[in-house]
């Protein structure tokens, strides 16, 4: 369901809840090459936004998602990319903008000290959200815009992670 709110200098904006649908890997890729994390809008429209990440980052995120999907009570595996102090909750990850083919995000935290925000690359924020079970939202203009640098053909790539029930 869309959430209209102000945030990150975007004025009154529509944020759409998304899930990580799959992580796809180009065959024969080597260290430092591109993997795609595919975010799907949760409203059922099947609109997607591919997020290009390095192979190693895609593999780590796939491991975290596989562990939490199969056994939510188990440790999610690799540590959070951003340290989260005890008593602080990761509320939401907002994927806010694209700059030169890279997606960026803002992680929202709450704790005894109130609310705070941290800018991060989308891939770091996605791993943070996966480790801490936070909601993921994307600004609607990113779903409507071009996929970004090097993202052509991602739909044909084999998935190294697929969400159960996808």
Descriptors:
globular, Bifunctional nuclease domain, 9 strands, 166 residues, 9-stranded mixed beta sheet, disordered N terminus, Bi_nuclease_dom, nuclease activity, BFN domain-containing protein, BFN_sf, alpha+beta
Can you put this structure into words, describing what you see?
By secondary structure, this protein is an alpha+beta fold. It has helices spanning 55-70, 122-132, 140-144, and strands spanning 3-6, 12-25, 34-41, 48-54, 89-99, 102-111, 114-121, 135-139, 159-162. α1 packs parallel to α2. The longest helix has 16 residues, at 55-70. The chain is globular. The model is unreliable at 1-9 (pLDDT under 50). Pfam families: BFN_dom.
Average residue-wise pLDDT: 77
* Strand segment count: 9
Major beta sheet, specifics? 9 strands, mixed
What's the alpha carbon Rg, rounded to whole Å? Answer: 15 Å
Oligomer: single chain
Number of domains: 1
From the 3D structure, determine the CATH topology: Bifunctional nuclease domain
Number of helices: 3
| CATH class assignment | Alpha Beta
Share of residues in strands: 35-45%
CATH homologous superfamily descriptor: Bifunctional nuclease domain
How much helicity do the residues have? 10-25%
Order of helices and strands: EEEEHEEEHEHE
CATH architecture: Roll
Contiguous runs where pLDDT drops below 50 for at least 5 residues: 1-9
